[in-house]
Hints:
With 438 residues, the protein is mainly β. It has one helix at 2-16; strands spanning 21-26, 31-38, 42-49, 60-67, 72-78, 84-91, 97-103, 116-122, 128-135, 145-152, 158-164, 173-179, 185-192, 197-204, 210-216, 222-227, 233-240, 245-246, 253-255, 258-265, 272-277, 283-291, 295-303, 306-313, 318-324, 330-336, 343-351, 357-365, 369-376, 394-398, 402-406, 410-412, 416-419, 424-426, 430-433. Strand 4 and strand 5 (72-78) form a beta hairpin.
Amino acid sequence: MRILKTILFFLFTPLLFAQSFNKVYVSSGTELFKNVFKTDVGYDAFGMTTSGSGSPSTYDLLFAKLDSCGEVIHAYAYGGFRSENLTGVVQNSSGNYVVICQSLSYTSVLNGYEQDVLALEIKPNGDVFQSKLIQRSNNSFRSRERPKHLILCSSGGYLISGNDEGNGSRYDDPSILKLDNTLTPVWYRSFSIDGEDNAYGITELSSGRLITVYSEERNRDLVFMKHNAQGNVLKRVQMSSRSYLYNIAGTGTSLNDKSYFLTRTNLIPPTYVLMKVDSNLNLEWSKEYNISGGMTLNSIKEINGVLYATGHTSNNNEALILKLDTSGAVLWSKNIDNGSNTAGYLYNLEADKKGNLIGVGMVSNPSSGNDAFILLSDTSSSLVGCESTATASIQVRDFPLTSSTLSNPSEVNVFKSWNRSVTKTTLSLVDTNLCPLE
């Protein structure tokens, strides 16, 4: 009986404890992961690939279903003969995934300027449940929609921040798009502002009101806007610095009605600034982060009451994770070993119910090119045998900003949308270990 118990223990032990892994996924072209979700059987990862049905130089949406050890169950590419650039993914209450892309393949006018919002709802088995193409155009010259950030809306549906060129000019204006559960636009607010203005982050407050941020061209300052639940502007505040501030890939997160936004300075090498604002756009603090040799930060995310920033270090070309408290102080910073690869980039983090961190990104390899990777770790400072011997020493300082209230901009609410079928292609992904496991 004792022998039987011992056998059963060893048979079922792998099911009781989370398996840590770190894997690279190789296909015929370039692959990268940008979002990941924990599932009952493993992980669902979303990214971009050039191995789909389109041209080898264009990207399709990538969806890979992985088991609990990170091995591929199936993988699919979605797109046409031009690029679908992934903006964001959320999981809805039905368990399906809503995906937003900036589409060049399915536009109503196929020219170099036309770019529309492609919204898809994808089932966990990879089938497309519904898809729509959305264009907010009031301009006979061209329509260029650039979705940047996607979040679930507390009242139902989805919110997308970005910018467009649909106000009768050739300049980008900040915009917010609200979709219902059928991916049909409820409203699409575009804000007419002089010059090139690039929006990126959006957060929702407990009241249902919204906060967005954009960088304005004239002085390279950041401008925060507070909106009601219908997207109308209630307040606009400009944050100025002696250094230029540039928007980066759409990112923003919130905790207890405080919003955190990440941006980049014009310094060489660039530094990164994290700002915390309250529900009325008052700046609570702004911190500047730097590393010897330079770095890139791609995202900021709240997980279990703390903040995580992900990116890449320039001095040794390794992926980077920063863990921060809500005052902006660095709790720890770690590099991820590239293994046999020449460079690593981390784009996003998620956590499972046990608090284990799941990181996704891309590595570069001289033989196979750019490949997607995934890392399962824990929330301590150990990275499961993948931690680099290099020390990621981060310098942090206060970053002074001057705030001033601006008048509210004029608004345009014109859009059109239509159903659009999307080509789905089965993709071959081969997984290998990134570095030895402990």
